[in-house]
Predict the 3D structure of the following.
Amino acid sequence: MKDEPILPIPLSVDLDAGKVALGEMLFNDPRLSRDDTVACVACHDLAKGGTDQTARSIGIGGAVGDINAPTVFNAGFNFVQFWDGRAATLEDQVDGPVQNPKEMGSDWPDVLAKLRQDPDYVAAFERIYQDGIQHGNVKDAIATFERSLITPNARFDKFLRGDAEAITDEEKAGYELFKSFGCAACHNGVNVGGNMFQRIGVTGDYFADRGHLTEADYGRFNATARERDRYVYKVPALRNVAITAPYFHDGSAKTLEAAVVIMVKYQLGRFLSKEELRRIVAFLTTLTGEYGGAPL
Amino acid sequence: MTVMGGRQAAVVLAGVVILTALYFKTQAVDPERHNQIIDYLREIKHLDATLTRDVLKMRSGVLSHSDTLVSTITRMRAILNVFQEHPLVISGVGSKMVRQGEIAGRVDGYAGLLAKRALIVEDFKSDNAILSNSLNYFPYAAAEYSSKLREKGGNNALAEEIDKLRLGVMSHYVSRISGLRHELESRIESLKQIAHRSPGQLASGAAFNRTALEVVHLAAHAQIILEYRDRVDSLVHKLLSTPVNEIVDDLHRLYSAFYNNLLKNANFYRLLLYVVSLAFLAYIVYILLKLRRTARALERTNEMLEERAESAQERLAAAIDGLPDMISLDDADGRLVVCNEGYRKLNQAAAEALKPGTRFEDRMRAFMRAGLIPESVGREEDWLRERMERHRNPGAPFELLCQDGQWLLIREHRLADGGTLTMRTDITERKRAEEKIINLNEELEQRVEKRTRDLTQEIAERKRAEVALRESKERFRILIDGSSQGILVHRNLRTLYVNRSFVEMFGYDGADEILALESREAMTAPEERARLLGYHQARLRGDPAPVDYEYKGLRKDGSKIWLENRSFHIEWGGDSAICTTLFDITERKRAEEALVKSKRQNEMLLEAAGEGIYGLDLQGRTTFINPAAARMIGWEPEDLIGRPQHDILHHTKPDGSPYPREECPIYAAFKDGQCHHVADEVFWRKDGTSFPVEYVSTPIRVEGEMLGAVVVFTDITERRRAEDALRESEERFRAVVDNSPTKIHIKDLDGRYTMINRQSEILFGVTNEEARGKTSRDIFPKEVADSFTGHDQAVIESGRTIENEEEWVQDDGVHTFLTVKFPILGATGEIVAVGAIGTDITKRKRAEEEIRRLNTSLEGRVAQRTAELEAANKELEAFSYSVSHDLRAPLRTIDGFSRIILEEHAESLDDEGKNYLERVRAGSQKMGLLIDAILQLSRLARGELKRKKLDLSKIVRSIVAEMKESQPDRDMTFKVARGVTAAGDEQLIKVALQNLLGNAVKYTGKTEQARIEFGVTNGDGRDVYFVRDNGAGFDMSYADKLFAPFQRAHAPAEFEGTGIGLATVQRIINRHSGTVWAEAEVDKGATFFFTLSQEG
């Protein structure tokens, strides 16, 4: 294999099976929310590519979120969590949605009290953790489960592993364009993204054209208060991108075509022919992998 | 020995403590952990080098993804985390602590550095991505663009400008020529301005947009290269110039020095541990040896002591033998140890039992057998048990009679070792002297007894006299005690006597308890004490003071009683005293208080009462009046008292005539002794107005004597008004209900009618008055009534409105009523009645049935007609088939044979003959075309319409393409509107458009520049599609014939055709529920319009 900017997803990850099972229980449990209505899975549906496939998610009491819910698949490969990268680890990330008033709107004492009333949880936690149901242990279990959510065996990964027939000539041409256009300057590595920050609007003013600037649009600036981080986001991973519409932090691009057109206009500043667009999109569809042995 | 043992134990303990402490000192270092830390420090340095290397690789484009940078930093953070969570060194005191703090400081310093470096790397990744993308694009795109400009020979100046920019930017990028940047930036600026403001310089027309954008792109990328090169390089420089290695090395050095120091200490302690252990071991060996020697010395001492004890015993025996008492010593087990000569002599008869070691019990048995103990004879076992008991628990000395009348005083002592010492003294002589004294005593007693008997007789006589006196006193006491009055005699408040009633009155247990009291004050209520003391002191001074008065006494239990007091002087015990008699008047007092209270209550009631209340005496004068009454009639109460009430407020009847006193029902009450209740009269106010009242006049009779009357009245103005309003509302309700054409009635919960309206009266055949109180069963046959009450019950149970149809037999047949039954709720929301409204829907029912019947017959007719039509269609199809085959076969024969004649027998025909045959052929071919057109037309009438959404523009474009191809030599311009859609059958619409477009092409055949247009306009909210041409057109007077088959606007010679085309178009459009029409002018062209149904 040559020096390719994209690396295949490992076929398996080594994790404590007990923690993964417990984390899955918690991930699907609406008791983590204040009024027992919203579980993690509500906005990260594994059947919908680990997202809810809507621009803004609906939290407790019908509250509409400020930002598009990113996929939970392969989140373990991201170098930081959240669009603004404010959580260094998946464990830290758990605090965010649980306590966000527009998402699950709860607090830890409340959540822990509810979990401690459930004998199944008490037993499951005591099997794994010496100190039973604790804040840190709940986060550990959920984060471990999330690390298990990998999607290996995408057609493109098979290609990277040497199966030249795994993708079509058109898709190969799309990959070459993906590199030569400069997409891969940011979208690279195992997760085809998720390993650096970048500003939206390098060769054009994205927000001026879109309008309705919100606080969430300030991006990483909200986490660091550094002026150079204004409008900067974690570069999203493009794994399974074909099934995680809508796109961008504001969910404004409804189709993959629209997303590629916007990216080329505001990030790369060059022309894109219809044929080129078709090929790049064709390549992106080869990034859809398998979860639990079944194609997504 | 014990002192010795304590010291040794202390030494051993101290030894163990010291060894443990030393052991822990040697554990101050953990070599395994040390190795791990050294490895980590090395790894950090290595990782930092990797990080720097990867950044440089990325800068030069050799590394194409950021994952390695991320994983390097993650690993560095993990190691740092280990350092921070588990301090590098685990113990230390004094100066070591300082070093430890220093190390922690270095670790924190390194943590800050790592955070900074990580941030630099983040910024680098972002900026470098932008810079590398622009570098990969700008030079090539600029070169390509300028050569493209030159090729087209368009704008050489612009090409020149772009080349200059390209060279300048790249030169600056490569060599960073100072001053060039400023010049380049102004170039970029001017390019941008050209793109934005002077579009004409770039290109013209449609190409402009793209060109302008191209220039904007190039300018943007040039700007990025200028800007980001500095940013990226400054980040790389920052990363490279941080002295990471030095800081890590410093940490390494500091840590190693500290660790080595610790290690040296630990080694020293380890040596010390070995030395101390050896010393400790030697000490233990020494102690063991010493213990053995001591044991031997002990053994020897023991032997010596035993020898000494034996000789001491012998000496003791010799000593006690000389004593006069008889002595024996038993050990703790009750075995004889030693006894003296006296004891042995005493018990010679049982000498064998006196051997040392004999048990006490055996010894006694031996003595008894030898008859040495006369008092045990006959009760040996009992005696032995008592003796044993006494022996085991020695107490007071005791006496024992032995043989030959010898008395012994026996004293037993328990010794410290548990043994018993028994000493016996001979007291025979003393015993004999005692016996003599006893005999003298008895004689004396007999003499005393005789004297006593004499005296008793004298005393009895005296007692009898005393009893007589006591009885007389007792009678008097009973008399006093029996009195219900409490009697007390006192002197200066000191109680001398109280009788039983007094004691009971105050709740004491007995007279003694009262006599023991210091003062009478304890029996007086606290609030009365000052008053009573005043009386007493006045009496003492000789001033007059009341002797008969009432006061409150205090009982022992703290409760109070009312008393009537009377005091007088008496002689008591020869001196003056005061006798007080008390009478309990508590009950009377209580009754008085209750009376006062109840009077007050009555007054309050009267004042608070909302009704007017007043009293009258037998003369009809007001005796009292409450405030409410006075207020209602507008008088002050004091002005009314004593005045004849009738004259003031009851003088006139409601109709204005005078009301004579004799007729007044109020006064009648005390005349006839009956209650009078009146509700239809008026009372008059002071101001001359009146108001309706309801009143009750009740006679007042006390113990049979008539005293007057009391009158209670209410102003019923409001009630009247409410009643009037209710009556009016009821009447309105009644009017509405009675005039309703529906039957309306209300039943109570027991199913009895409370109201039926006029319509119901007619239907039921009973009046409202008759129906009231009756049930359905009283009015209707049982089955009908039961169905009604069943519905009523359902309403009561569900609480909901229920609708159902009821059928009744009337004179003119069965009538159907749609009856709505509904619950009527009371004030508190519970169901109080059931209402019913029934509408006669017989006519509607009958109409519905008629419609149903008609519908049924209509369906039958439609089915029949459909069948007929289907049969007709079949016939038509059969006809079409025969036309296509049967009619065309002879035509083919004519055409075919004509052709054969022309081709094979040409030589036998002259030119004229050939010409005729040609015309035969043309005629038969024309007829074939006609038959095809008719067939198509007929086919259009049948077949299913398959509607779907159609792109008309697309269909038209494909037809136009075919037409252009088939007639390449024609000069035709087609204008086809974009995005015209409609719903319809694709096949049919295509045929219609082919015909219309075909016509347009045909009739522009003689026009020089043919223009044909397809489009859509809006007419009356519908889409109107059109096909327009600039051809021959036609006279609008033909417009109505245009769409009929075989009608033509032009002669066949002018424009050939079958005359079926527009008929076909019309049939197709009609099948789509649309219309088609045309507008035209001769030689100016024609426009055909059509609409299609909007349904999809």
Notes: Strands of chain A lie at 197-199, 232-234, 290-291, 294-295. The interface with chain B takes residues 3-7, 79, 180, 182, 184-186, 188-190, 195-199, 202-203, 228, 232, 267-271 of chain A (CB under 8 Å).
